[in-house]
Amino acid sequence: MRWLVGWSSIAARFGTAGAVGPVGDGSEGGSVHPVGSQLLWGDPDPLWAVGDWRPDEIRVVTVDPFTRLAVLGCCGATDEELRVGLFAARGGALRHLTAWPGSYTAVAQIGRRVTVAGDLAGARPVFYTPWANGTAYATAALPLADLIEAQLDIGHLAALLACPETPEALRDTTPYDGVKRIPPGHALVLREGSREITGYEPVASLAVAGPQRDPDRAVEGVRDALIEAVRARLLAPRHAPETLPPDPGPVPGMGPADRRAARGGPVPGIGADLSGGSASGTLALLAAGLPGAPGTILGHGTGAGERLLAVTFNDLSTAARDEAELERARAIAANPRLHHVVVPGGEEALPYAELEGPLTDEPGPSLVTAERHRRRLAAGSADHFTGAGAREVLDAHPARLADLLLDRRRRHLLHPVSALAKAEGPSTASLLVPLTVYRAARRLARTPYRTGLEEAAARLPEANRGVLTAAAISPLGASLAALTWSRPGPAARWLTGEALAEVSVRLMSASTRPTSVQRPGEARARAALARHAADHRVFEQAAEIRSQRLHAPFLDNQVVRACRDLPEALRVQPGARADVLRTVLAGAGIHELPPGWGATSRDGAAAAARVGLRAAVGELIDLFDAPLLADAGLVEARVVRKALRAAAEGEPVPLDGIADLVSTELWLRRLLARRGTCWTGTAAPRQRAVAGGVVPRPTLHQ
Known about the structure:
The chain is an alpha+beta fold. Strands 3-4-1-10-9-11 form a six-stranded antiparallel beta sheet, with helices on one face. It has a six-stranded antiparallel beta sheet with strand order 5-6-7-8-12-13. A five-stranded parallel beta sheet has the order 16-15-14-17-18, with helices on both faces. Helix 4 (154-162) packs across helix 17 (497-511), helix 12 (400-406) packs across helix 14 and helix 13 packs across helix 14.
């Protein structure tokens, strides 16, 4: 786990900082500094990098002792471009700090003003908390919780389970009471301890229809941004993993890649997922075809002309695996610049098969599948591309149909509603699907933001009383449920009435606050992207392989911006994502793609989740024999155990909701079993965050 941390305090104005607040340079006289840290600059507003950062991932540009910029992560800008961005930020143009290719966090210090820029998706969040007559900030919430000895914010956990894709319910809170999160697309500006949160993206007006963007130019923008994002990783120095246990030699049935995966270490060089889908295939082909710097300084990663290691996970535990997708992966891997490795996964790689793991910064559904992904990533490279985020940034959220109605573009609804009717299958009811979807989209388009939140708040307390049917989780049911300003999450049906009522109060309170309201489709799409980016961040921590970096170019700022410029009329067309990515590859000189390119399927993941749940149902029932979630008043243990048995028996139960409940319970147990703190020094906190062995309060924070 890697993070940066710093603070801004007013204490330095009055002579000796230690007389008013803590000294932060980590020297003998310093009182508080993070464990295992690297000081980037010292008092009065210190900044540290903590964790296993690579040397090239930390760049500091200094103009004078009072004007400097730190960029942590993979950034494709040159030193001169960083210096120009620093001068622009000094004049107030914060957007320049987020306009370079790559994925990174930028911290600019100009005099006593410190600016920390978050990203657009939310994959690189920024947290802050009041501390020592000032404000401390970090890119991880747990170190700040340690710093102020925070207790759990049960209200945030309730909102995360009840309405995970509703920012109005989550607000700016975190699982730790007193630790706040800045929204995606915003920056934290600190001046001698005082703080301000400001957005750096332009806000579109709702008074007129959206601008008519040229589809061809918009797709070209996506192509350029995605190519630059991949090139930024290719031009970075290559790294060989740290020393691993020696290879035991030939083992029957195991090749060198299998033995290395068993020892738990990636290979040097660059690799990529190759699932057979369009997103991972695009990244693999771009990374194999673009010029870069193959191999490490010592020559690792260049053996036998191998340029890129493509890894495909083959699930052998279920009969529902997509053979066509596996064949597409093999066809793509026929490229001579790709070396293909297929990682088989049996029952040991099922979801819920391994419930032990590292403590992550926040809870996330990937905690129940971390071991499954770790097996795949262990066979990968030191720098590994994933297609995470492509669906969220390229596909059309169902609520975008309402945006088309707001712009009086009704004819563009024909193809998506026809595709939805086709997905429902041949039946009498499918003939009414277009009319049903049109009415729902028109209702959303005519519902003001405040009214929509009030209606959602009024319906939420009843979310645990409905009877779930197979039709409710069909494509049509999911689309109709998404055509609202806010909808309950899949785990809301198992929360207690008190928990749902508290989240309802949050929504009602949010409806009365002034806000820059966006179009319903755009707002829902951004919320879904933020939720996915937050879950991807948890996934990176839960499935982390030492010496490996996961790269998700679709979550980069420039790629997100380019994808937002795609017109809604293009997005909502069936197969739009595959068409856009096909154009991206054509622009890079790649024209031959396997048959079935762009076909999407999630049946395999759902089938694996159900099989894993059935195999681990006994252990999961024991987990909820006396759950911490019940101690906090969020669920009733009896209700959850009943849902687990029902899901294992094949009843129509939302598996995503089960994963949310189990992962949150696992995260709570790991957090409360934790010992130690992230800080050291004479005045360091002597308690860990969330003191005690039980959830401190059964009542929820409002």
